[in-house]
Amino acid sequence: MKGFKNAIGIDVSKLTLDAYDYQNKSYQQFKNQKPGFKALINWVNKFNEDEVILCFEHTGLYSLPLAIFLSEEQLPFCMVAGLEVKRSMGIRRGKNDKADAMDISKYAFHRKGEIKTYQLPSKSLLKLKSLLGLRENMVKQKAGYLNSLKEMKRIFPETQNPVWFRSQKALIKKLTEQIKIVETEMNSIIQEDDQLKKLYELTTSIKGVGLILGISFIVYTNGFTAFNNWRAFASYSGTAPFSYRSGSSLKGKDKISHLANKRMKVLLSNAASSAILYNPEMKTYYQRRLKEGKSKMSTQNIIRNKIISRVFAVVHRGTPYIQLNRHAA
């Protein structure tokens, strides 16, 4: 990867961008909108001729407009996890936007020879990502209303407060309808994009991978470009345990990182449970492991990783998965 001579750290908030030029020790604040983006680039060019990279934390909706602008202008930038920057800086008392921008610029500058520029997903992929997040929020809301309705039914008869019960049922029904609409729209986006359609067909050729998990694979891997191999994605998804040992005194069990994508892990867990029930190959493997005295949790985690590895294999190979039931898993 190309080495950069300088780094600009940007602390992104809802309304402003706080930028710090590491080498020139210059600080400036800009508005978090297109005129501010243009002013930012003019300010950067004032001190730097070329070979400079802009670096900022991934803050979802707040950082997305800047990322889109830089991509359209074909300017190199990187987006990093806030926790990664904080860990690299060590303990610091207090907090302000200028100091955060300085920390980000220092982080990027000292890694300028190895840092990777960020490739913004396609517009179709960005739409899928936003719809996937919307669906997840609606599913959570629906689950909340269902739990509330269940508890009320357990304690009170519907005749005691009919308006409350009718309202809860109406909200559940409306959320169910809207979730279906979102899923239909996601499927339409996939069908209209040849590349996404191909990836979706490949991922869902694995038993246990349906619409939502298939789309999640595509979204979280940025179209299978963000991870070099399935093991890296397993670490990201929280299905790859890490050793917890040091010397002769500390010998803990292997643990899953708490920084993993918990939503992806839940989806993979559901897929593994489905595979154990309906995939003869996985069912045989699961039962054999239990007879050997292996734990249910570790076996389920292996199946989660088998699903990940198979998805990556079919995508890299470019052909759908072929189920060979005569072979053991």
Written account of the structure:
- The protein is an alpha/beta fold.
- It has twelve helices and seven strands.
- It has helices at residues 34-47, 64-72, 82-89, 97-109, 123-155, 162-192, 194-203, 211-220, 230-237, 262-278, 280-291, 296-317; strands at residues 6-12, 16-21, 26-31, 52-57, 77-80, 242-246, 250-255.
- A five-stranded mixed β-sheet has the order 3-2-1-4-5. A two-stranded antiparallel ribbon has the order 6-7.
- Helix 7 packs across helix 8 and helix 10 packs across helix 11 (280-291).
- The protein is globular.
- Residues 243-247 have low confidence and may be disordered.
- What does the radius of gyration come to? 24 Å
Report the span from N to C terminus: 39 Å
Count, helices: 12
Largest sheet: 5 strands, mixed
Helices and strands: which structural class?
Answer: alpha/beta
- Sketch the topology as an H/E string, one letter per element: EEEHEHEHHHHHHHEEHHH
Strand content: 5-15%
Helical proportion?
A: 55-70%
**Tally of strands:** 7
The overall average pLDDT, rounded, is 87
- Largest beta sheet: strand ordering: 3-2-1-4-5
Low-confidence blocks of residues: 243-247
SSE layout:
Elements: E1 6-12, E2 16-21, E3 26-31, H1 34-47, E4 52-57, H2 64-72, E5 77-80, H3 82-89, H4 97-109, H5 123-155, H6 162-192, H7 194-203, H8 211-220, H9 230-237, E6 242-246, E7 250-255, H10 262-278, H11 280-291, H12 296-317
Parallel strand pairs: 1-4, 4-5
Antiparallel strand pairs: 1-2, 2-3, 6-7
